[in-house]
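Late entry, evening session. Most of the bench is empty. Finally got around to the prediction I had been postponing all week. Sequence below, unchanged from the version circulated by S.P.
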Amino acid sequence: MVAAVRTGDAMSVLDGRAVISGAGQSQIGRRLERDGLELTLEACLRALDHAGLTAAGIDGVATYPGAFAPDPGFTGAGAYDVIGALGIRARWFLGAMETAGQLGPLADACMAVATGMADHVLFFRSVWESTAQAGRGRGSVLAGGEQGRHRAEGFHQWLAPYGAISAANWIALAAQRYVHEYGLTREQLAQVPLNARRNAALNPSAIYRAPLTLDDYLAARIISTPFCLYDCDVPCDGATAIVISRREATTGLRQDPLTVRSLGTGMYERNTWDQRPDLTTMAAHDAAHTLWERTHLRPADVDIAQLYDGFSYLTLQWLEALGFCERGEAGRFVQDGERISRTGELPLNTSGGQLSGGRLHGVGFLHEACLQLWGQAGDRQVPGSPAIAAVAAGGGPVAGCLLLSRDG
């Protein structure tokens, strides 16, 4: 582990002014049959209590993707809903879909507090896909229309005739290209979900906590080659909320502030699942490039990594994009599972991620990073007082990432 960040270190373009002062989550589970707004408000109130604030102290709200819901249960609430329900007098607010992945509005919130537009911004992400899609499956995204008929439009019109309506199909094609180029094996890919399950066993909120072996993984049904069931995240119901504060406004709050040291928000190529010139890269590489441009910290400084695992292959992409290993080496980097274990060189997805913890759509990784840096992760706490965390969300066409540090 590295020592706590030194005062003289570079603070990125934010100059240390944007910090995280509280974090909270709602109940998390499968088919909770609870309203999405109810879950959202539960997470928000827990985050406020954790920070030592009330709704009266919040003057900003940010969320992804806003009230827009392309699939059933994709969002539980928008910014307007939370502002109205909690009686927030917002000096600044944002609900956005076209942004740097799920963390895009958080990046905007950091800039809002850094420039004085708000003192405390409540950032949240909520989903209730498990309840909303119960009995219909993920294929329900095309199940509308008279007598169940629906005409696919846009991107889907080229995919629906072949049954390729899931991101599992689209990302699997990219993963197959990577397998061809770099020789990734199923045994190597398995280490991401196996590590997630080991960590989830220590997380009382995780959806799947039962032991998972390599034999279990290899025997599981294939969803879309090379992905089997355990390579795909678990739809669930739940919400996460984070309080982003202006550093000067945190005096007297309950938690020591965590500094947002850099933001990765780049998009250098088209918003596409399948048209990048190099199909062994993704938007994660664009976001990661801008992250390291904005700080003097390097990959070797990072103590823990919470990296998006909507599908296991996306985590390997993030490991390479963020420079934790060389291009084409991610499979070998994780292959024995030791390096990414909770006691390893780079503890990875310590809550169980989305593969076992539940698909909280990216922001759950930030919540876990905060708990780890505050030393509040309970039985799954990484030893050695981690000081710097990398957090990444998104995969395929859009992505965002950040570096977070404990300063004390």
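Two things to note before I forget:
The CA atoms of residues 6 and 350 lie 26 Å apart.
The radius of gyration is 20 Å.
Will write this up properly tomorrow.
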